[in-house]
Amino acid sequence: MMIRPRRNRRNEVIRSMVRENILTPHDLIAPLFVIEGKSSRIAINSMPGQSRLSVDELVKECRELYALGVKCVSLFPAIEDNLKTADAREAYNPQGLNARAIRAVKEALPDMLVMADIALDPYSSDGHDGIVDTKTGEILNDVTLEILAKQAICEANAGADIVGPSDMMDGRVGFIRKALDQNSHHNALIMSYTAKYASGYYGPFREALDSAPKKGDKKTYQMDPANGREALREAALDEAEGADILMVKPGLPYLDVIYRLRQATNLPIAAYNVSGEYAMIKAASERGWIDNDKVILETLLSFKRAGADTILTYFAKEAAMLLGK
Ligand code: PBG
Fold first, then answer.
1. Which residues are catalytic?
2. What CATH number should be reported for the domain holding residue 310?
């Protein structure tokens, strides 16, 4: 035998010399859940190790993350029921929980990148990402755009460095870009949820925010899990409309989509390792069925191998600690 691939795996020094992908804390974005209150951390049942944090606790958490090298967080506010309305106006309240959380993190840690989500579901009494037509139940695209733009401006005014439209309305990236620019926020990045699928993997997230749709599902706006080519169509649109980073969500079941976008665009690509993916790994490792630490790092590395530049993951802190060992 002349050719023996095992020679390149003979010991750790050789392996590390030929290693194609490396995971570092800088690759990670930590999604964090925010609630009203003080000194409050409320555990999320279906996401062991994750909690909803009051703003003061959020700031503490961000300090720890930053010290570990995780320098971007994505905030998800849990809005109180009495503030949820059909028009989701709380989404652009400059004194609302979302804006206060963004401001608090930026004040405490000016160099921490703060990403703010754009979508109406946490603020909507219908639990949908867009405005619902009361007669037909249709999710109204163009009416929703106006509110998303207000939300984006509110978030950028509060100091958000990145806005992440996760609503999947048509034309939102261009609409939001224009609105941001008209309000002197030309430096605010848009990380578009480009290929966001109508997925069963969002269950624990919806529990954390109590944001599940009251009626129906999200299949008229989120993508059909059967489709790969359609992601390229969404990517071309988002790129043309001015997105700075394209995201694929969920992550693990859609590694092929990450790979395809990597071939199709020169924009940076983000993977969202979502709540259900987190829950599965935690559930199996709690039972002793898999090795928690190994599976976390292997999973995150798989996103880089597929072509992602950055990874939104609830494992961010744990992985950064493992990588720092
Ligand atoms: C809402 C939104 C969702 C997630 C991020 N933003 C849920 C949904 O679309 O229902 C899910 C994230 C996760 O599961 O970790 N626009």
1. 196, 249
2. 3.20.20.70
